[in-house]
């Protein structure tokens, strides 16, 4: 049956299905209700208010993503015979879903070049091998990669270990997703995160949702969007694809919405992939022509006004229409809505950041907000919709190549640790250095670095060129089968709700939550913090200022974080107070920003030409399905797009006809970087003609390593491809 809305009774039936997989619906419910932060997106559910409760105290807000992650962690352990029965070559043929559903990792594993299988080893063997490799190299011949799955405490401790070891090659997964948001916001408002709290979103009368699909990827935001619509507000969706869940969504926890559905998008604009910057400038120009600028706000609270307004005046409508693919009349109608709004929130995801001009896109959104004073007061502001549950916290506690000056100084002065001052490499730089043989050891705290990379062929080569790669993981992923180093060690770790001591996470609304942890479900996996401390003790036993036994306690790490990380002071007492808190200096309810002079910064840009305009080309964007989270694929089907498989390219029926193809014809999809064979070309009338979509991470082989020069974020969107009949 074709799906016509998101959520609804299918979501309820899915709950029963996942409950059965987890050993019973009641068992799954109890796991979800524990006082731990949600393991998936950064909306910020759970913590001390209990699972399925958001930061406003609204209860029973559960989504498929959280159930998928919880059910995965409730899998049985992988039997040791598994590694004897399944060779590396066979694992390479497994799909991401098949790897994920193999069970929980419970034994340390090792692969050595020339071997056909992984072998089970002891923790002692693993620790000794890791320390031995790190002693043999110079520190800058290593890199340290962090997933947003981990806690603030684990992230802080591992970056501290890397730096006292002697390198700043410390980077997190946001370099491949939202780093452009951080850079764009930092250069506009002086803070790299959301300027609002959740309550502001629900107070807004207009919400721009640009380049994102929260119905699939952040379903709990749909309740807030429902409330905006019920209050008579507008939700303006800007996306090359008409996404089912953004048109209509049935909130299972709301009886009226469940039965009747909720119309989410009041207006839907479909630019070409890569046309966002031109569209945003067009909206600003049209708003100016309507006389709707807040001139007092712009004059008192921004810099760069004269040059920005002159650039708007000089910009022609022909250029805007040509480079965005959106008619002037449509842009002007949206600008009119914006000009009438009293409180607007601008939100976006990777449809904005995954471009070679991703930072420009974010700055242009900030420009548009400044134009009408829609930042720096309640009920309006800027909201990057972050992906993994603690990706923002990982960045806050120091997981960046360059430490913030305040953290660097405080660590030195208050704790007496020696820190390197050499420039660190970002994620893509580390991969390229590994390919050149300049980096010899990698250490990955969660995630799937291989699967996250553009140009999969290159990623495989680069990671295979390492002498050692260490991965701390809960389940299998493609990175455990591809790109294996000459020695690869996999360390099984506990999930968040299995930690023996409480840990903390930070939501995308800058809210720090406390997870209680809980009993381990399986024997074997260890706490991430204890593993990091054990490696530190073996590698650097006599480091000035460091007591690894003491730092194996999360409460000790929190005291360090509270002392050195700006805005995190309350974390030092959270063990006693249990008080979850908003980080100071990031939420702007007054028009005084985090820039040196307290003013917002208006930026000017050159609008990029649309790519892929030749008759045999399409503009491709890589996307996640409704049945996956980041690189983790839980279901082969994409329910909301009505697709039952992933080896497909979706394009408008007019493009099928233009290219001389028929529906479900096998094709080769080719870019300048790589190609994929035996792909099914499918007509999909919800996408704008001239554009196409394929699933990530399988299509990463087509994505080049060309990155935004300011954020170093690769352009996973706007890939120019040819589709060739087989």
UniProtKB/TrEMBL annotation:
SUPFAM superfamilies the record matches: ADC-like (SSF50692), Formate dehydrogenase/DMSO reductase, domains 1-3 (SSF53706)
Keyword Iron: yes
Keywords assigned by UniProt, alphabetized: Iron, Iron-sulfur, Metal-binding
Keyword hit for Transport: no
Domain of life, source organism: Bacteria
Domain Molybdopterin oxidoreductase: residue ranges: 111-481
Domain named Molybdopterin dinucleotide-binding: residues: 618-719
Pfam families the UniProt entry points to: Molybdopterin, Molydop_binding
Family annotation (InterPro entries): Asp_de-COase-like_dom_sf, MopB_CT_YdeP, MoPterin_dinucl-bd_dom, Mopterin_OxRdtase, Mopterin_OxRdtse_a_bac, Prok_molybdopt-oxidoreductase
Designated name of the protein: FdhF/YdeP family oxidoreductase
Organism for this UniProt entry: Roseiconus lacunae
């Amino acid at each position: 049956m074709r799906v016509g809305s998101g959520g609804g009774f299918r979501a309820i039936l899915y709950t029963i299905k996942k409950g059965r997989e987890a050993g019973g619906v009641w068992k799954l419910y109890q796991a979800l209700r524990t006082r731990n932060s949600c393991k998936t997106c950064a909306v910020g559910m759970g913590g001390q208010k209990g699972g399925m409760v958001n930061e406003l105290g609204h209860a029973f807000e559960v989504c498929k993503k959280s159930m998928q992650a919880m059910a995965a962690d409730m899998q049985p352990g992988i039997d040791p015979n598994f590694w004897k029965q399944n060779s590396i070559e066979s694992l390479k043929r497994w799909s991401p879903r098949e790897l994920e559903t193999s069970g929980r990792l419970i034994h340390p594993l090792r692969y050595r070049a020339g071997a056909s299988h992984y072998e089970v080893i002891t923790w002692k063997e693993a620790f000794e091998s890791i320390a031995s490799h790190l002693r043999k190299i110079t520190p800058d011949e290593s890199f340290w990669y962090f997933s947003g799955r981990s806690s603030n405490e684990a992230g802080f401790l591992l970056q501290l270990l890397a730096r006292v070891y002697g390198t700043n090659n410390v980077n997190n997964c946001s370099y491949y997703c939202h780093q452009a948001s951080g850079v764009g916001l930092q250069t506009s408002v002086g803070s790299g995160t959301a300027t609002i709290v959740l309550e502001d979103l629900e107070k807004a009368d207009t919400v721009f949702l640009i380049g994102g699909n929260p119905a699939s990827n952040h379903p709990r935001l749909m309740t807030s969007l429902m409330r905006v619509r019920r209050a008579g507000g507008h939700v303006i969706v800007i996306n090359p694809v008409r996404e089912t869940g953004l048109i209509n969504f049935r909130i299972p926890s709301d009886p009226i919405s469940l039965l009747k559905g909720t119309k989410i998008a009041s207006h839907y604009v479909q630019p070409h992939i890569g046309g966002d910057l031109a569209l945003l400038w067009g909206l600003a120009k049209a708003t100016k022509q309507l006389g709707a600028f807040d001139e007092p706000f712009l004059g008192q609270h921004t810099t760069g006004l004269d040059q920005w307004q002159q650039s708007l005046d000089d910009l022609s409508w022909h250029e805007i229409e040509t480079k965005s693919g959106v008619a002037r009349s449509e842009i002007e109608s949206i600008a009119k809505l914006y000009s009438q709004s009293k409180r607007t929130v601008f939100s976006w995801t990777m449809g904005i950041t995954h471009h070679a001009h991703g930072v420009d896109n974010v700055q242009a959104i900030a420009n548009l907000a400044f134009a009408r004073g829609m930042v720096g007061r309640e009920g309006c502001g800027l909201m990057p919709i972050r992906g993994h549950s603690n990706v923002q916290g990982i960045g806050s506690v120091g997981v960046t190549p360059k430490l913030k000056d305040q953290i660097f100084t405080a660590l030195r002065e208050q704790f007496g640790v020696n820190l390197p001052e050499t420039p660190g490499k970002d994620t893509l730089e580390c991969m390229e250095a590994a390919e050149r043989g300049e980096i010899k050891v990698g250490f990955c705290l969660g995630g799937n670095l291989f699967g996250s990379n553009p140009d999969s062929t290159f990623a495989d080569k680069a990671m295979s060129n390492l002498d050692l790669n260490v991965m701390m993981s809960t389940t299998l992923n493609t990175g455990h089968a591809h790109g294996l180093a000459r020695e690869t060690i996999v360390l099984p770790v506990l999930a968040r709700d299995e930690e023996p001591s409480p840990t903390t996470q930070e939501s995308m609304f800058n809210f720090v939550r406390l997870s209680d942890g809980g009993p381990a479900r399986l024997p074997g996996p260890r706490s991430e913090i204890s593993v990091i401390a054990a490696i530190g003790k073996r590698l650097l036993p006599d480091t000035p200022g460091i007591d690894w036994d003491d730092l194996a306690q999360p409460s000790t790490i929190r005291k360090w974080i509270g002392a050195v990380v700006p805005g995190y002071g309350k974390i030092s007492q959270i063990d006693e107070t249990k008080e979850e808190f908003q980080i100071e200096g990031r939420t702007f309810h007054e028009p005084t920003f985090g820039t040196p002079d307290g003013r917002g910064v208006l930026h000017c840009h050159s609008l990029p030409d649309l790519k892929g305009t030749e008759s045999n080309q399409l503009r491709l964007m890589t996307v996640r399905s409704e049945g996956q989270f980041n690189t983790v694929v839980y279901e082969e089907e994409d329910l909301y797009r009505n697709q039952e498989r992933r080896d497909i390219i979706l394009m408008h029926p007019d493009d099928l006809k233009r290219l001389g193809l028929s529906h479900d014809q096998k094709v080769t999809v080719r870019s300048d970087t790589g190609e994929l064979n035996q792909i099914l070309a499918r007509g999909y009338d919800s996408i704008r003609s001239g554009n196409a979509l394929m699933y990530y991470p399988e299509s990463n082989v087509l994505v080049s390593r060309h990155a935004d020069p300011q954020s170093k974020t690769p352009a996973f969107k706007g890939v120019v491809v040819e589709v060739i009949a087989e």
